[in-house]
Amino acid sequence: MFHHPLAGLAAASFLAAATPALAETAMPFALDWKFEGPAAPYTLAVDKGYYKAEGLDVTVTEGAGSLDAIPKVATGAYPVGFTDINSLMKFLDQNPGAPVTAVMMVYDKPPFAVVGRKSLGIETPKDLEGKVLGAPPPDGAWAQFPIFAKEQGLDMTKITVEPVGFPVREPMLAEGKVAAITGFSFTSTLNAERLGVPADDLTVLLMADYGVALYGNAVIVNTDFAKANPEAVTGFIRATAKGWKDAIAAPAAAVETLVKRNPAADASLETKRLELAISGNVLTDYVKEHGIGSVDPARFATSIEQLGTTYAFKTTPEAKTFFDPEYLPTDGSLMLQ
């Protein structure tokens, strides 16, 4: 609690605390994508009462791509959301002073990938030249493709980029209409397999393994909300970390909470998707050592530099604009193992 020197205010807050029907702080949470495996830690934290224990009323809502949650949180429609931090950097550069920032890194290693088919000639990044690449314009992986291309020395004039909608992205790959697609590794691979593409025909080029130092998705907050409710933000992060810890310990049980909200989901498929996200993106060596949520300042500086090679920042980017570690709990609750 923050104690205000004015006794009247202190008395008022005491009276509020003494009211039995004191409302929980409403914190609707805007996901980047559908109710798929990697969203299970949040639905688990709701169902297990982890948010409620922090005095929060959290509802988790689906999103429509990495860019979707940023305006929702910046306008205050949602106090918290989940998005690609690189998309957030561009948004804040284009909308200086917008009340939104990242407070908890979740994908220490981003899932940005190019997923291609060996039978269509895709085994290495260079193989994309002379081929058709399907890329949804609002896709977070597509947004970082130029950095990947630059690091790999690809000639963009030799790659035919087909703008595709999210719903047809994997079907077009399955039908052979495109040789490769951009997407999140755990989303596109499993979706393609589900459509009948044999697992051993898929080539997954994780951009992080090909010179891309960027971070991935983070929890973002509306900064006006955060300043007014700092304990709620820290509580949200602590409960979210608990959800991830449980999901890492028992992925199938976490996915059960997701399937309740998305009955069309295939539980075994989504469990596999969650496991891929845990091993590939969340539980990295850095996170095993430092816990979930923080960023390494040197790597973060490199990631901003890399983004600057493909995106012209209007103002000199400052790390503190994009990521604010001050809400991270310091009670050890961020350790996942």
CATH topology of the largest domain: D-Maltodextrin-Binding Protein, domain 2
For the largest sheet, list the strands in their spatial order.
Answer: 4-2-5-12-6
Largest sheet: 5 strands, mixed
Average pLDDT metric? 92
The CATH H-level homologous superfamily of the largest domain: Periplasmic binding protein-like II
- Secondary structure class reads alpha/beta
Low-pLDDT ranges = 1-21
Radius of gyration over alpha carbons? 21 Å
- From the N-terminal CA to the C-terminal CA, the straight-line distance is 29 Å
| Top CATH class of the largest domain | Alpha Beta
Plain-language structure description:
- With 337 residues, the chain is α/β, with parallel strands linked by helices.
- It folds into two domains: 23-108 and 215-327, Periplasmic binding protein-like II (D-Maltodextrin-Binding Protein, domain 2, 3-Layer(aba) Sandwich), CATH 3.40.190.10; 112-209, D-Maltodextrin-Binding Protein, domain 2 (3-Layer(aba) Sandwich).
- Helix content is 44%, strand content 15%.
- It contains 15 helices and twelve strands.
- 48% of the residues are buried.
- Mean pLDDT is 92; it is low at 1-21.
Keywords for this structure?
D-Maltodextrin-Binding Protein, domain 2, five-stranded mixed sheet, 15% strand, disordered N terminus, 44% helix, 15 helices, 2 domains, single chain, 337 residues, alpha/beta
Describe the structure concisely.
The chain has 337 residues and is of the alpha/beta class.
